[in-house]
Amino acid sequence: MPKIILKILAMLPLPIIHGLGVVIGWVSYWSDEKFSRRIRNNLHNIRFAPNLKAHARLVRLNVSETGKGMIETLAIWAKSERSVLQWVKHCEGWHHVETALAAKKGIVFLTPHLGCYEITARYYTARHPMTVLYSPARKSWLSNIMEQGRQRSNTSLAPANLSGVRSLLKALKRGEAVGILPDQVPDLGDGVWATYFGEPAYTMNLVGKLVDATDATVLLAYGERLPWGKGFTIHIEPLDTGTTAQDINNAIEHLVRKKPEQYLWSYRRFKKPQLAREKRVKS
Hints:
alpha/beta, seven-stranded mixed beta sheet
């Protein structure tokens, strides 16, 4: 069944994909109490909206945008590279990439859960190789689809463990790029507590270690979802501050405030970290 769905999505234009996404978002909101409560609570706890009316509007927008993200991600995994790249209408800041490549010390792309984070990697790997740090999905069928969809063209996958970190270091030392979701909660012991929108959030400290070891350039990137299925604008900008966990959280906050409705507020960003499974097995 998943393969049939992917084949159908691969044939659909983006406006229809996003329309289906809006429906899926609202079905999820009304049928999954944890999903809906997490969106409401995250937006309420960080006091993003100035009043209840603005809060309710932001929740409504976010439900639709989250649904779009669900379906467009599957479509990106299923579609050809050429078809996906046609969705990118503009890229702002590509000159930062060219400058970093000229330095030949590698690039660390930080792509938070904002807008379409899958399309940024596809856009870059159409031109240059990239190694992406990832955690397998909980459902095996989804994990297989994700791995197959991401392992295209110049993309290599690095699991979120010691072996994966070594792969990232090797790629950077070759002068290549690596991709990281910086607002993903790391396992216990692989991060530090830092403030995020005024709340404590366990945050990875991997980026600073990679930069210290390679002197790589750190770039922030996200794919802004344009209205009515018109496509995406990719934004790339340098991390002009330090690379501590707090520096990175501050930089992500800056991006999210530009398009708060397109952030993945359904994600458990403020959860307590857990010990990695492989570490639990050994103990």
